[in-house]
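Supplementary Note 2. Why include the ligand at all?

Several targets in our set were suspected to adopt different conformations when bound, so apo predictions alone were not considered sufficient. For every target with a known small-molecule partner we therefore ran a joint prediction. The input for flavin mononucleotide is given below.
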Amino acid sequence: MSDLGQLAVIIASVRKDRLGPTVATWFLDHVPPGTDVIDLATLDLPDHLAGGGDTELFTKRIERADAVVVITPEYNRGYPGALKTAIDTVVAEWQAKPIGFVSYGGISGGLRAVEQLRLVFAELHAVTVQAAVSLPHAWDRFDEQGKLREPRHPDSAAATMLGQLAWWSEALRQARATSAFAL
Ligand SMILES: Cc1cc2nc3c(=O)[nH]c(=O)nc-3n(C[C@H](O)[C@H](O)[C@H](O)COP(=O)(O)O)c2cc1C
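The joint prediction is reproduced in token form.
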């Protein structure tokens, strides 16, 4: 069984009345204790990308992570602008790190946002894992207490994604320890 190492989970939605934290609460039941939960709504990441605010803190948290899961909604076939700013805030700390996705939205379940993110992370030399969790019609899937109504398939998808992420996390941890990442 592969070891995830230090996992970070990014909540990408910063919208007022967002569903993101509800999705995150369900997903965080699947991850090891000690996972670093990075809620972008709580961070000040300046979009001029010239440092300041929480830039240093966020950079350190990505540097510490061996693997990252991004929980993202889909907005107009894309992903949230706040997530792009967060991704662009950090450079070398993404390199040779595995990334998994939990996406949600309307009809597409956020899959179109994830396909775009795969291109963005490829540019940063991060490795996106093949298996992903997708929740179409996400607003209807949680009850009044925020509990996922039919968790069987999402639970199973989360386990598969985390299994792949753990394999890559271990492999890339060893690779990073053996030699510095070369561009
Ligand atoms: C501006 C905006 C654009 C959206 N565009 C899409 C879309 O293109 N595809 C889709 O499946 N859902 C779309 N949705 C639905 C959202 O994915 C859904 O409302 C989700 O809950 C948003 O995440 P959040 O509540 O955490 O912000 C859109 C929602 C908003 C607010």
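The two ends are 30 Å apart (CA to CA). The CA atoms of residues 106 and 137 lie 4 Å apart. Comparable summaries for the other entries are listed in the accompanying table.
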